[in-house]
Amino acid sequence: MTSSNPALPSSTDVLVVGAGPAGSSAAAWAARSGRDVVLADAAVFPRDKTCGDGLTPRAVAELDRLGLGEWVRGTARNRGLRLSGFGQELELEWPSRSFPAVGSAVPRTELDDRIRRVAVEAGAVMAEGAKAVSVTRDGNAVRSVTLQTGEGSHDIACRTLIVADGVRSTLGKQLGRQWHRDTAFGVAARAYITSARSDDEWISSHLELRDGAGTLQPGYGWVFPLNDGNINIGVGTLATATRPAPGALRPLLDLYTQQRRSEWELTGELRSVASALLPMGGAVSG
Known about the structure:
Elements: E1 11-17, H1 21-32, E2 37-40, E3 54-55, H2 57-73, E4 80-85, E5 88-93, E6 104-105, H3 108-121, E7 125-127, E8 131-138, E9 141-149, E10 152-163, H4 170-174, E11 178-179, E12 185-195, E13 202-206, E14 219-225, E15 230-239, H5 249-260, E16 266-279, E17 284-285
Parallel strand pairs: 1-2, 1-10, 2-7, 4-13
Antiparallel strand pairs: 3-6, 4-5, 8-9, 9-10, 11-17, 12-15, 12-16, 13-14, 14-15
Helix pairs in contact: 1-3
C-alpha cells in the first residue's frame, strides 16, 4: 500500500476488489448512493493493463454518465469499424439508435486511473497495493475479506462484496469461480507504435491474419488510433485446452506490424508489448 492511502476501516457497506473500469464504476455508483465503500486493488495507480484500448459508443455513454464526458470527448474519436480481409474492405459506422454514434480509444493506464479517481471523489476509500487473499464466511455469506499490503494484513468486514479483479482472481477461485479451458478463449498481444495516422477516424480489424508461412490463423489483427501520435496495434487468436493457440504471438505481432507499416505510416519500434488470455462467453462461471 502506498503512503498516500487513507487509514482503512475495519468494516464497510461495500467492498470492491479490483479497480479496473468495472470495479471503479461500481464503487463510484455505490458511493454516490450514500454507501460507505472501500475500493481495493493489488496495483498502485496509474498502472498498465493489456488491452486494445477501444471504447464502444456504449462505453462512451457510460463514461459520460460517470461525469467523464468532457474528458472522453477530448480523446480519440472514431466513427466505427473498418473491416479488411480476403480482398474486401468495409466501413461500418457505429449504430446511433441507443447511444451516440462515436467511439474512442484510450490507453488503460489513463482510462482506469480516471475512473478510479471518480470513485474516490464520490467518497470511496481507495486501497492501492492491497491484494485480496482470503475471505471469512458465515455459511454461504462472505463476512470479511483479508487484504495483504506492504504493511501486513488487514481484515475488512462488508455487507456487500463485489469481485472485479479478473479471471485469475485468487478471491474468485475461493468463491467458486471456474475457468473452463475446454471452451474457446482468446490469446492476444498488443503494443504501441508511432503513426502519422493516429487521428484516423476508424478503428481497424484485419480478418485475414496469416503467419510468416502464409497460413491463415484463427483470429484477427487490429489497429486502434489513439490521436496522440500513436496507435494500439495487436493480434489475437482463439484457443482451447485441446487446441492451443498456433505458435507464439510475438512473431505474429511483429509480422502484422510490418504488414501495416506503410499503410499506417509507422515509425520506430513496438513499445510496451504485452499479452493476455481472454476468456469469453461461457469460459468462466461461478
